[in-house]
Amino acid sequence: MATTTADISNGLCFKMEGHVWKVMEFLHVKPGKGPAFVRTKLKNLNNGKIVDHTFNSGVKIDVVRIETREYQFLYKDEAGFNFMNLEDFEQIGIEEKMISAPQFLKEGMKCIVLFNTEDDTPMSCDLPNFIECEIVYTEPGLKGDTATNAMKPAKLDCGVEIRVPLFINEKDWVKVDTTTGQYHERIKK
Q1: How much is the average pLDDT of 91-103?
Q2: CB neighbour burial string for 48-67, b if at least 16 within 10 angstroms, e if fewer
């Protein structure tokens, strides 16, 4: 399905140079002199690379129809990451480069998988924006260490090390932003 750059929006997927791309960010620019253009940040769904690309206004793009489905992460093996469709229990394998933040995956986590509807192949897998993790190791916090912006390293139950405020202790639960890999807040469990 062909359309033009005027229809570009976040999440739009299209074919260009033999690859399928997803629009992460875009900005329509109309300078005082010269023609209008569209500045974009694109993610290559074939290899996971993110690039900046500028389109002249009105250029035709070949839109790819995609479908999102909820899948549950099961396990990782030498073939890749294995997920199960929660509706029909079909299992699929997804390569690590297609997953937005594979280091944060935990068994049972629900993720959104994008499929190319032309050939029903998975294109990418997005984790939830925020996940809840338990701190399995960090140096002990001290009473009164809440007013400063000082941070210390902490290891999460999924194996990832992040930086947390000084008042966070082992066995505390925290909310982590999977897009940045940073601590967001402490939560009560």
Answers
A1: 89
A2: eeeeeeebeeeeebeebebe
